[in-house]
Write the structure tokens for this entry.
Amino acid sequence: MPLHRSWIGTVAVVTLLVAACQTTPTTTTTSALTAPIAAADSVASIDGTTIKYDVAGQGDTALVFVHCWTCNRSFWDAQVPYFAPNYKVVRVDLAGHGESGKQRKTYSIPAFGADVAAVVDKLDLKHVILVGHSMGGPVALEAAKRLGDRVIGVVGIDTFYTAFSFPKEKQASNEMAAKFIQPLEENFPANADKLMRSIFAPGADPALVDRIAKNAGAADKAVALSAMRKMFDWYVQDANMAFLNIDGRLRNINGDPKGENKPLHESVVLIAGAGHFPAQEKPTAFNQTLGQIARQLVDNAKK
């Protein structure tokens, strides 16, 4: 189980938990990505919810990208052309996000994990690296529990071994969740925008900051708040088993906004000058780092 720095109690620190990326579903064209993507397909998750996904590239190993809280699969646009020549690249819209269905009543981390597993099962993927950003990290661990030894690795993106610590005791977790969610309940668009602007590295592209911050408030409020509450619950109820299950297959890429180069764990590679969004703020460095990690995981799986 990862060890984090203790919680300081300010909203600014709490926001390291989340990443509200582009919330409006988009269909990315081949010309924009310079890599062919099959038309979006769908599969029914364990509860019947329709899950949208798309596929690009080829290879024996699949990189399955899992977006963060309130995001969608277009969040990974900068990764498709880089990885498609050597890997099968799969991008998933979790339930309640992007083009996937919203009939689910409770948006829990295990249920999101089932969404990812349903896509992997439909595509009959045999060798999988799950890449999960922020909330997508726990989702990837839950998917790995369902997929077993088909998962050769999980790569958490600014989600584990960061400056944010989730309480592991139920009462403390409930209290922190209530403090965090209250302003979002009162004025979701304005406060989601404010929160997102606080988690970028200094010098981040203003257009990127504006796009992510403004689109955060466009998320489905009911879905977002349900997912947030269940994120806190997951760290109390399910995290220990999920980390035990992945046993040695977890790697992490985290932001390093000040360039201090002080990772909190040996599994962490830091991206200097990036905040909570390393794949968007520093896509070239991120892609190179993820590529190195993916090759190591593939080599380890062959041993």
Q: What stands out?
A: The two ends are 25 Å apart (CA to CA).
